[in-house]
Amino acid sequence: MEFLDEIKAKFPNVLESVDGSNENESVLLLKDKTKIKRVCKEVKNHFDILFMLMAVDKPPKIFELNYVFSSYKTQNILTIRVNIERDKAVIDSISSLFESADWEERETYDLFGVEFIGHKNLKRILLPEDWPGRPLRKDFEVTDEVRNWTGLDLKF
Amino acid sequence: MRSGTGLGLISNFRFMEKERNRITINIGPVHPSTHGVLKFKVDISGDTMKKIEPEIGFVHRGVEKMAEMKYYSNFMPIADKLDYIAALNWEVLYASVVEKALKVVIPPRAVYLRTMMCELQRIMSHLLFIGHSGEDLGNTTLFMWGFRERELLMDIIEEVSGGRLAPMYISLGGMYYDLPPGLIPKLASTLDIIEKRVKNEYRALSYENGLFKMRTVGVGIIEANLAIKYGLTGPNARASGIKCDLRKNAPYLAYDKLDFDIITADAGDAYARFVVRVNEILESIKIVRQIIKDLPSGEIKVKVPWIFTIPPSYTFVRQETPRGEAAMYMVTDGGQKPYRLKIRAPSLYAVQAMSEIFVGGKVADIVAILGSLDPTPGEVDR
Amino acid sequence: MEEIKNNEFSYPGLGEIIFMKTEKFIEDVLNWGRSRSLWPLTFGTKCCAMEMIPFGATKVDADRTGTLFVGDSPRQADLILCSGTISKKMARRLLNAYEQMPSPKYVIAVGACNISGGLFHDSYNSIAGIDRIMPVDVYIPGCPPRPEMFLDAVLILRKLIKENKIKRYENGVLGRDKS
Q1: What is the DSSP string of C92-139?
Q2: Which of B31, B77, B147 lies closest to C58 in CB terms?
Q3: Is A135 within the bounds of a domain?
Q4: Which helix H or strand E contains A29, and what residues bound it?
Q5: Fewer Cβ close by (within 10 Å): the C or N end of chain C?
Q6: Do B69 and A142 touch (CB under 8 A)?
């Protein structure tokens, strides 16, 4: 695919192709997480929106972020996969490039605790501010204590 | 049922702070209209909205975590309740993800039945939208009518599956049951009734009614580039003149064998969104009629065991639900449960875009615009 | 009261009997009135709310039982129809709405989620049954229940009100109604 070669040509040593399951869905592995913003700027020439952002917790060391981009004109899907350290989960925000990344990043921050540098309103979105823990991490167990808690001690 | 129009809204207003001419008011979280629990923090100056901040998460149930705790087949009833107005669409989507990862090909009759169920659900969802917009604008007759026609299809769904709102009809590998005898003629006559009423009765009360137009024309305009910026899809984007419909552009199920059009409008206001949905009902009726005509016979499912494992893989599927492009991204690790299931809810982006759509509008139009965007908090919050 | 129970002078006199009978009569009349005009606060959050709306629409017409959906304000309501999963973020708001309602107030818990957690009983953010935070008079089972079951629940609630079997909070303690 042309756009794939173009994007890869711009960042020769950083991006690496991963076998996609479908011809419309291509996956690129980004080796250097500090380059995410520059790569996304290049991606913006070919794709319209951040379709979704999926974080996968892979204990004990890695958070895997999957940025899925889509376009209105073509039916191509591009996934950019980045691995970041689990204990220092920090990455540049791309919400200034893609508006739809705003809430996706807040959600990832809310449920996983990944911090996005440069996000203008990084706070919890689905859960209240004082909710204890990051529920979608693999080490968060849904115990009876969590289930029986009524949440009445939460602030408004 | 005369809720949501006047009293409910005013009672939820809470005056927070007052600086010069600006007042901050809270609207919600219970019933800003009948669309569920959303909250808006609005800065108003006079009667004009200056800044709006939507807040979500009031029905967050942690569906993505629950998917990691359940066997593949056991997640199906929860997929039902993601978007409870379009339950069958989400059932089909989840089944498609698992089947794609499992490399199962379902028989042609099941493909056609699934397509039919998706379209019936789309008609029901849009009828509910029509009823709700009527109620939001204070038109109770339209509300009653929308629900009257929806009940007719509810009866069909109930006859097919045994459930009304959460049918649990789609199983992994096909469908649970075949259509009951005598359903097809009943369905055909029901579609005739709905088509006649949508074309004639609704016209007088809604899309060609002067009062209705006064409330909706030119209200809540979404330009095409604003829709693209926030990633709006589905009828909301199509009302802004964007020709995006996965059923046509990236056909799945049996859509490539069916004849239908992408409905678009140019204005991008609340009225255009209403008209697009009304026309989509007629288009869906057309699709269902074609399916009835060439419904293949044969098996309705391939056998998939209740508990099974999927080798490590990444699976991505997206489909068109009544609210837009929904997607599921599933990561498996070889176990009996998904390792991670990410759900893309189209309404989430519509709610996010509200912070820009509402600016400059009047407070009284909040409910009209919110209703025209048709978000479902169930899928926004997951 | 318990001290003078065995005292012969503790038996009520004629005046007191008339007073008690009158009080009981007035209470009965009031309950009769209350049971026939329930104004619900529709606290709908999720799927069950979608079945609550047909309850007010044409096919199952709630107005026949005097259940008028007049406005979603807790201040004018005496029945709270709590339908849909209540999350931990929503619990405080539900209780707040409940506390704002004027005193003889009744609760109908709709759906499996509000009875025991139902489908979402092992979720980290849903409350497994709203009777953990407030007294419930009538439960409607189902996931989601049919609109006709709402009608049934309202009829049962009317019977309970007439027979004075309503649960109430008294000084923060859950107890049955006196008399």
Answers
A1: HHHHHHHHHS-SS-EEEEEHHHHHH-GGGTT-SSB-S-GGGTS--SEE
A2: B147
A3: yes
A4: strand A25-30
A5: N
A6: yes
Query: Which chains have 3+ CB pairs within 8 A of A?
Result: B, C
* Burial letters B268-295, b for 16+ CB under 10 A, else e: bbbbbbbbbbbbbbebbbbbbbbbbeeb
Residues of A in Cβ contact (< 8 Å) with B229:
49, 99-100
d(C-alpha B313, C-alpha B331), whole Å:
6
Beta carbons of B6 and C93 less than 8 Å apart: no
Q: Would you call A127 and C117 a contact, using CB atoms and an 8 Å cutoff?
A: no
Task: Give the ipTM.
Answer: 0.88
For B140, the closest chain C residue by CA position comes to: C57
Share of chain C above pLDDT 90, in %: 0
Give backbone dihedrals phi and psi of B112, rounded to 5 degrees, phi first.
-70, -40
- With contact defined as 3+ CB pairs under 8 Å, the chains touching C are A, B
List of chain C residues whose C-beta atoms are within 8 Å of the C-beta of residue B3? 42, 56, 69-72
Q: Does C65 touch chain A (CB under 8 A)?
A: no
In a domain? residue A42: yes
Residue B242 token pair? 């964007």
At residue C54's C-alpha, the angle toward residues C49 and C56, to 5°, is 95
Q: Is residue A111 part of a domain?
A: yes
* Residue-range domains of chain B with CATH: 7-55 (no CATH), 63-381 (1.10.645.10)
Within a domain: A150: no
The number of folded domains in chain A is 1
| Low-confidence spans in chain A with pLDDT less than 50 | none
- Domain extent, residue C114, equals 12-164
Least Cα distance to C65 among C145, C139, C151 occurs for C151
Give the span between the Cα atoms of A75 and B225, in whole angstroms.
18
- Which residue in B has a C-alpha nearest to residue C100's C-alpha? B11
H or E element in which residue A104 lies = helix A101-112
- Nearest Cα of chain C lies from the Cα of A35 at a distance, in angstroms, of 35
Q: What total of structural domains would you count in chain C?
A: 1
Q: Residue written as tokens 């209703």?
A: B371
Query: Does residue C171 lie in a domain region?
Result: no
Task: List CB contacts (< 8 A) between C91 and chain A.
Answer: 150-152
Convert the pLDDT of each residue in C97-154 to its tens digit.
888 888 788 888 988 888 888 888 888 888 888 888 888 888 998 888 888 888 888 8
C128 to A147: CB separation less than 8 angstroms, yes or no: yes
* Phi, psi of A28, deg, nearest 5: -120, 135
CATH code for position A26 = 3.30.460.80
Contacts of C43 in chain B (CB under 8 A): 30
Nearest Cα residue in chain C from A142: C124
Contact by Cβ (8 Å): B315, B342: no
pTM for this prediction: 0.87
